[in-house]
Amino acid sequence: MYDVTDLAHLLAGPVVPAAHGLLGCRLSAGGVTVRVTEVEAYAGTAGDPASHAYRGRTPRNSVMFGPSGYAYVYFTYGMHWCMNVVTGPEGEASAVLLRAGEIVAGLDVARSRRPAVRRDVDLARGPARLCSALGLDGSAYGVHLLGAGPVRLTAPPAPVDPAAVSAGPRVGVTGAHDRPWRFWITGDPTVSAYRRHVPKPARTAGASGVRP
Predict the structure, then answer these.
(1) How many other C-beta atoms are found inside a 10 Å radius of the C-beta of residue 56?
(2) CA 207 vs CA 46, 111, 200, 203: distances in Å
(3) What are the percentages of helix, strand and coil residues in the chain, rounded to 5?
(4) Distances, alpha carbon 212 to alpha carbons 117, 198, 200, 208, in Å
(5) Could you tell me the pTM of the whole model?
(6) Is 47 helix (H, G, I), strand (E, B) or coil?
(7) Mind listing the pLDDT tens digit of every residue in the chain (212 residues)?
(8) Which end of the chain is more exposed for a tag (fewer CB within 10 A), N or C?
């Protein structure tokens, strides 16, 4: 059983136990609270090429280098925000991506932010949807999550039973970089649909020298 009664201690430790422990935690922002149901662990500089911090510190990823307990928020595909919780010893740059959650407070506010969504279970089903439902954007970058700030992470009323947790490959990570570091609450309807990323075959020049 992973101890989530002391979130600061949990997040300061290795990223995989931290990812497990974040399941069931509550994340509150913008008048909405989400129960975390799906996460992905990224080991940062510790031999994980899929991490944003694998090649070292940049202006974009600097908050990942610690201390733990802060938000790493990034923009992707030119339209979506995604949020990670920084974990591990300072300098290691590991983090946990929050992939999905259940709205447990502020449902009407979440609906107003995502009016096209028909089912409540889909409001925060996926990392970009989760941020949208909570009203999170780049202004949350570097926010301390364990205090009384605008974005707050709190322990669950009771820890999730490890027997109720499933593990599998991370989304969009393939080949030697792939690890079973995506964790979710088994059978929860808010967990995002898994789609394995299949790289497109490299184009080759035809006999005429023109790419097909």
Answers:
(1) 9
(2) 45, 55, 21, 13
(3) 20, 25, 55
(4) 39, 20, 14, 10
(5) 0.88
(6) coil
(7) 456 668 999 999 999 999 999 999 999 999 999 999 999 999 987 788 888 888 888 988 999 999 999 999 999 877 789 999 999 999 999 999 999 999 999 999 999 999 999 999 999 999 999 999 999 999 999 999 999 899 999 999 888 999 999 999 998 887 756 789 999 999 999 998 766 544 454 444 433 222 22
(8) C
- The first and second tokens of residue 49, run together, are 């090429």
Question: Residue 67 carries which side chain, given as an amino acid letter?
Answer: P
Distance, CA of 184 to chain centre: 11
SS3 7: helix
Q: What are phi and psi of 56, to 5 degrees?
A: 115, 180
Here the tokens at position 15 are 């990223």
Q: What single letter denotes the amino acid at residue 156?
A: P
